[in-house]
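Notebook entry, structure prediction.
Reason for the run: the old model in the group folder had no record of what sequence produced it. Starting over properly, with the input documented here first.
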Amino acid sequence: MLPLAERLRPRTLQDYIGQKHLVGEGTMLRTMIEQHRIPSMILWGPPGVGKTTLAEIIANTAQVPFYTLSAVTSGVKDVRDVIDRAQKVSLFSQESRPILFIDEIHRFSKSQQDSLLGAVERGVFTLIGATTENPSFEVIRPLLSRCQVYVLKALEKEELLQLLERAIDKDVALSKIRVQLKETAALLRYSGGDARRMLGILEIIQSAANEGKIVIDNALVERQLEATPLAYDKMGDMHYDIISAFIKSIRGSDPNAALYYLARMIEGGEDPLFIARRLIISSTEDIGLANPNALLLANAAFDAVSKIGWPEARIPLAEATIYLALSPKSNSAYLGIGAALDAVKATGNIPVPMHIRNAPTKLMADLGYSDQYKYPHDYPGNYVPQQYLPDQLLGKEFYKPQYSSPTEARLSTAWKEKTK
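New structure, fully documented this time:
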């Protein structure tokens, strides 16, 4: 028997659950589908939200030939074979342009994607690609420019419950069992907005039915799915989204949010050294001179994590996370080096002033290298005014103090006093 998710796959837009922003009544995409004006498109969204189903519904609605390829198992030869078949169809009917659906199109290499370009441009077929990864990174620009990108969302609680009730009422196998939905919180949590996963869990629970009856509650789901990991793709968008949220929470001085995203990464099996490296970056970019000790603590956390690993590594990571989130913030060093790099790119290799060049040989000294250089330690307070920047940049300020903490205020005040 087919898996439950396949048995319940809808065939029409009326039966399709979710993605109201794309295919709800009156939306542009729905109108194009109903009018059989199908553009080439990329369907981008997390697993189990209906990308393949929508592609099949589009083909059914338009009543056109539907070819499918999986980027995992198909190569350039497979693409060319499909193009040849589609061209033969197009010769006999200009109105029934076939649809080529490529699942996981982000896994296609550049050469494989290149092989699609000509056929898409000539209208040999309408391309529908499905991807869980950001197409702006994974799909070549010429192909992406010829496709509309539609973003599909994880299913909402109400949509998952609707699908659950449909499965219980209409599936051939489940309808033979008396299923009572007592609690759904655990089932929805483990599903994570993924319809396919939820139906898979339901099938697992179905196998535990006794005497043709089953009562679904949180405890039953927990028992059946012990140690099921949370959704977290260490190479995908979620990886970048969560680390971004983690760093932004630290930057925004919210230790609770920072700890939450840290926990998400821990539960997802993220590399602890990756997290520790990002803490070091944050300690210099976001805290910086407001609290120079932040860098020391972040480095210490990295060292501890590299020695102990999971699960204990969560403790120094949490300590560093909280410390950085609660620290005063200054990005003056980050902005300063950025401004200096911009100046270097704009002005090129400006000669270093002669008086601060080194003169290791007599010839260089005779040429004026190091001439009239003032050694600061020969003066009171170990400071003496003199020019260090090239003439073209004289008076340019790259470092702009931020008085968000006494530490940077003291450093900046002392420097300003000396440079009066």
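Summary: The longest strand covers residues 126-131.
The old model has been moved to the deprecated folder.
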